[in-house]
Amino acid sequence: METKDKTAIILGATGLTGGYLLNLLLSNDHYKKVILFSRTTVGRTHPKLEEYLIDLLELDTQADKFRADEVFCCIGTTKSKTPNKEIYKKIDYGIPVSAAKLCKENGITTIVLISALGAKVNSSIFYNRVKGEMERDVLKYNIPKTHIMQPSLIGGKREEKRVGEWIFKQLFGLFNLLLVGPLEKYRSIEPETIAKAMVWVANHDYDQIRIESDEIEKIGNK
């Protein structure tokens, strides 16, 4: 059920998916204001846009400004970009959990986050385990409308070079056609599709909390 004159917060608007999400919200008549919390500016102006440049690891100090109808969290780093596991966890676990805490404290009833396919608390893979722990602890806050997107490998072009990821993307492009039926959720997915799905679930009645990549694809193409 779409309502008008909403305010949305985006965390991670300088990233690939977050950038698409920002464009969607700014062009959507249902949103009157879009608030960004970022380490660096998105470098644009818009009548709806309100931007706060902060250290996202200290997001919990922004409670007075963290007020909206919906929160979209597109935060995520990579092993190559953040090799230090302690810092990686502060980003991929700490920021989304802080956002959920602020939602609870400020009465924000909708939060939509990006996690990853394979996120599990008991995973032997550190990065999947961190995502699983993040999901678990975000859900502890019982935000009424919580949706966790679990995409497979995210496509698209990034400014920074990630050689290993680029190679995997080329391979995934070849394998996508072979991934059918139950394997469809392992297909790579475009960031714009994820962004569209995030906006859709925020604005419609949708019961599923964890949304795997193949379902994200279907929602994003509605």
TrEMBL record:
Keyword Transferase belongs to the record: no
TM segment ranges: 6-26
Residues of the Semialdehyde dehydrogenase NAD-binding domain: 9-89
Keywords: Membrane, Transmembrane, Transmembrane helix
Pfam families cross-referenced by the UniProt entry: Semialdhyde_dh
Keyword hit for Disulfide bond: no
InterPro entries: NAD(P)-bd_dom_sf, Semialdehyde_DH_NAD-bd
Name of the protein in question: NAD(P)H-binding protein
